Amino acid sequence: CAAEYISMPFEEMCSIIKKTGGIVKALFGMTERFGKIYSEMKAEQNVMEFSDVEHMCFRLFRDYEDVRNEFKERYEEILMDEYQDSNRLQDELFKMISRGDNIFMVGDIKQSIYLFRSSDPTIFKEKSDIYIKEETAESRKIVLGKNFRSRGQVLESINDLFELIMTEDAGGVKYDEDHKLNTGDTTYEDKNKDYRSEC
């Protein structure tokens, strides 16, 4: 219940919200005016930002079925890397031009670092949660669980630490078998040395 997080009576909170209504309305107005002037300046100079292109592309595919279908037929496969750093708009764009069975996405939610650029790692997590690992599945998940860069002792130390600190509540990831780092190359392992940290 939300009531346990509110430190004032409900009526008092509603009163404060009503008093701030004028300020909020003014801020919305300023934001809309700024957006209009900024858009006009960009149009005058014939320049665009990346987000402008994204939104124009979205409107084009949304409003013109013939254009959308042309792109659906044009691409045999749609391959996306670093998918954990995509946003809802980008995800929607790819859905509109895919045939549903020709998208291949690669990503690792543990490497999501672009929230400040509006990336939304929950998109990747949603797909990862619903896709299954069966060969016959139309939407299939393939876990690339081997690390070929580090010694096994280093990976074991990382796993020990991340199992303690990486949870659904802290970071949105349950550090289970699908997320653990497993040794891929054991050819350079020195069995007589213990590189593992103590946790």
Provide a descriptive summary of the structure in words.
This protein is mostly helical and 199 residues long. It has helices spanning 10-44, 50-63, 65-74, 88-97, 121-130, 152-165, and strands spanning 78-80, 103-105, 146-147, 182-183. Strand 1, helix 4 and strand 2 (103-105) form a beta-alpha-beta unit. Helix 2 (50-63) packs parallel to helix 4. The longest helix has 35 residues, at 10-44. The mean pLDDT is 85.
Keywords:
single chain; 199 residues; mainly alpha; two-stranded parallel ribbon; 6 helices; 47% helix; 5% strand
Q: In brief, what are we looking at here?
A:
With 199 residues, the chain is mainly alpha-helical. Helices cover 47% and strands 5% of the residues.
Tell me the strand percentage band: 5-15%
**Care to count the β-strands?**
4
Shape: extended
How confident overall, as mean pLDDT? 85
- How big is the Rg? 24 Å
H/E series:
HHHEHEHEHE
Tell me roughly what share of residues is in helical segments.
40-55%
The assigned structural class equals: mainly alpha
Q: Main β-sheet, in a few words?
A: 2 strands, parallel
Number of helices: 6
Strand order of the largest sheet: 1-2
Q: Roughly how many Å apart are the termini?
A: 37 Å
Uncertain segments are none
